[in-house]
């Protein structure tokens, strides 16, 4: 199917690269790596990227102002996005005007594309793309590797979680050999401001443990305002802070934003996707997300987690 992707890129002059809402480095890294890969290997292509770009990802990402006309007879490549509702696009109906190609590492619950490369055995879409690019005869540049390493190291949380295998380290080796300054990548990912580091201190002082097996923290708007946090989605991805607690089976972050409470589930031994699906969510076996619409639902989530841990 990678051969088909190359054929489609060759035959389309207009290409649009999309990924999921509330992006992470795997979404941004996979999107930007394809942007670079196409530029390195194909001439005279008009490539546009969508759609929103949080401040913390401007270190590697870029976006364009997309309109409906851009999608007319275009090739749209969507990375790291499991279902239609998660695509970062103003109007999903615009996709009907285009040829859509999905590249993803989530469980394939929504076959929304005309073509797809989906393999849930990869812990990151950036690992999947590394494997595809490295096996091709096309240019796999240092810049492409730079973008991919951001997604690989974050979606595995520094190779500690989420079905990391020997292949993961082989892909990391391929990337690291191409990158002169790995330290710059770690700075992009892990450097935070003083308010954020103080919030981490609050989290470590106020998390709760249930049944000696489940750890969680609820960060409401008042707490986030106190620490001058403007992006709750960034904080939600700190969830693996609680994964370092000894003997904990399942850990969660509940982070309130303007429209809902973003909930992040993580576990090494429990299928958290089954829990997340009960609360407007989904994802991976070991890492999933959900949306809650009132704080009372937090207790319901914890109850489901207790049942799953028995």
From TrEMBL:
Residues 228-304 form the DHHA1 domain. Residues 14-134 form the DDH domain. It comes from the Bacteria. Pfam families: DHH, DHHA1. Signal peptide: none annotated. Gene3D superfamilies: 3.10.310.30, inorganic pyrophosphatase (n-terminal core) (3.90.1640.10). SUPFAM superfamilies: DHH phosphoesterases (SSF64182). GO terms for molecular function: nucleic acid binding. PANTHER family: BIFUNCTIONAL OLIGORIBONUCLEASE AND PAP PHOSPHATASE NRNA (PTHR47618). This is Bifunctional oligoribonuclease and PAP phosphatase NrnA. It comes from Spiroplasma tabanidicola. The gene is nrnA.
């Amino acid at each position: 199917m990678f051969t088909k992707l190359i054929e489609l890129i060759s035959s389309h002059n207009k290409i649009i690269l999309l990924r999921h809402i509330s992006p992470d480095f795997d979404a941004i890294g996979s999107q930007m790596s394809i942007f670079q890969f196409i530029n390195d290997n194909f001439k005279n292509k008009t490539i546009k990227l969508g759609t929103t770009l949080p401040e913390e990802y401007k270190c590697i990402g870029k976006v364009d102002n997309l309109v409906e006309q851009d999608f007319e007879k275009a090739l749209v490549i969507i990375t790291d996005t499991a279902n239609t509702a998660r695509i970062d696009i103003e109007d999903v109906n615009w996709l009907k005007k285009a040829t859509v190609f999905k590249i993803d590492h989530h469980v394939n619950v929504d076959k929304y594309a005309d073509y797809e490369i989906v393999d849930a055995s990869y812990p990151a879409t950036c690992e999947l793309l590394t494997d595809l690019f490295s096996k091709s005869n096309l240019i796999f540049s240092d810049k492409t590797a730079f973008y991919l390493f951001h997604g690989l190291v974050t979606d595995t949380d520094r190779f500690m979680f989420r079905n990391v295998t020997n292949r993961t380290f082989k892909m990391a080796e391929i990337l690291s050999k191409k990158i002169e300054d790995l330290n710059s990548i770690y700075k992009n990912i892990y450097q935070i401001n003083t308010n954020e580091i103080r919030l981490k201190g609050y989290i470590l002082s106020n998390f709760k443990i249930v049944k000696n097996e489940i750890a969680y923290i609820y960060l409401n708007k008042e707490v986030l305002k106190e620490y001058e946090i403007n992006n709750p989605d960034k904080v939600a991805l700190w969830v693996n802070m609680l994964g370092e607690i000894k003997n904990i089976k399942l850990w969660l972050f509940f982070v309130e934003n303007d429209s809902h409470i973003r909930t992040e589930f993580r576990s090494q031994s429990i299928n958290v996707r089954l829990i997340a699906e009960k609360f407007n969510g989904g994802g991976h076996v070991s890492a999933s997300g959900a949306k809650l619409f009132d704080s009372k639902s937090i207790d319901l989530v914890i109850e489901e987690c207790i049942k799953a841990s028995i």
